Amino acid sequence: MFTGIVEELGEVVAIEALADEAARLRIRGPLVTGDAKHGDSIAVDGVCLTVVTTDSGEFTADVMRETLRRSSLGSLTPGAPVNLERPMTLSARLGGHLVQGHVDAVGEMLERTPSEHWELVRISLPAVVARYVVDKGSVTVDGVSLTVVEVAADWFSVSLIPTTLAMTTLGHKTIGDLVNLEVDVVAKYVERLLQWRTS
Q1: What's the DSSP call for residue 87?
Q2: What is the mean pLDDT of the chain?
Q3: Regarding the domain delimited by 8-85, which CATH topology (the fold level of the hierarchy) does it fall under?
């Protein structure tokens, strides 16, 4: 479980193709690898991955075909920046919201409108998750916990403060770039419970 508060802006060092269209990512992230070991979890652009090896501030993680297909990780290239976060601990503050690291859909950057103190960003909203995104609700974009400003049938907007722009990949994304979306898990549980109640 994560919070959506990015700890470090890492970098993809290498991508090794594996059998069955899987891949092994090597990622530089000195902070998140400081206490990481084999089997630990690290969120990479909002995708929970399992650490295979660590060495000199870098870690490797295997990514199966399904994850490459259902997230933006399949479009990564060496040198690409990535958002990194270690799992939360029970003694830590929950600075963002409950994030599982399970991508629900992939959105596309549609528009960026800068202003003096923040930037308004509009992102496409796939129909499969549209019902879970609400005004002033929480959404995770590439592993970053954000508050929804406005939502329409097929898009939503978020405001990015200077810190978010500087310390996450969202400051580098351009129009047409893909982003991983994870909706609030509480909404999905509520929907499921209501389905059982009315059936």
Answers
A1: P
A2: 93
A3: Elongation Factor Tu (Ef-tu); domain 3 (2.40.30)
